[in-house]
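help with this:

***
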Amino acid sequence: MPTDKENPETIIGLYQRHADAWDRDRRAELITERAWMDRFTALLQPGASILDIGCGSGQPIAKYLIERGYKVTGVDSSPPLIEKCRARFPNNEWIVADMRALSLNKTFDALIAWDSFFHLSHDAQRAMFPIFKQHANDGAPLLFTTGPEHRVAMGEFHGEPLYHASLSIQEYRELLSSQGFSVIANTIEDPECGGHTVWLAQCLSVG
């Protein structure tokens, strides 16, 4: 059983209470993420639809995509962060929703879960892969970040515990394959991307 501090259920409340602080701390432009974002968008047609899962306040990830002409739909469990997205990018769709129960009844040309999916528990992460598939068009790339090995890693944000978890690299590969995603690239603790463990996969199966 997790301790009170090692509890993924605290994440939603944390990002509601500290939305303004998180937004202030988050830079508006891409720096280390740019190479992965460019690799991701190289797989897309102009004007492609993108589902940003755990979009935060829309910066820098959604901002980068919107400025390049993509149609971004953002999902986040924090109403204050979604309100910031709506104020900044009113021509895009922003939805308050828990990614663990996401069911939008539509599919997208690409999906991204950058620095969001890893706040879920191990079991909740496993359950996300059918959700990714449910929202992916055939050929859709999926870009997401994880930890480097099976573990729980606790951080801190404004004096509160910040939960992160990861499955093993092999299990992520198996989960992707089970839903028809082929791994294009995976770098563990990429030194050129701030130590992120990054996955780029593509949905290759229909149905």
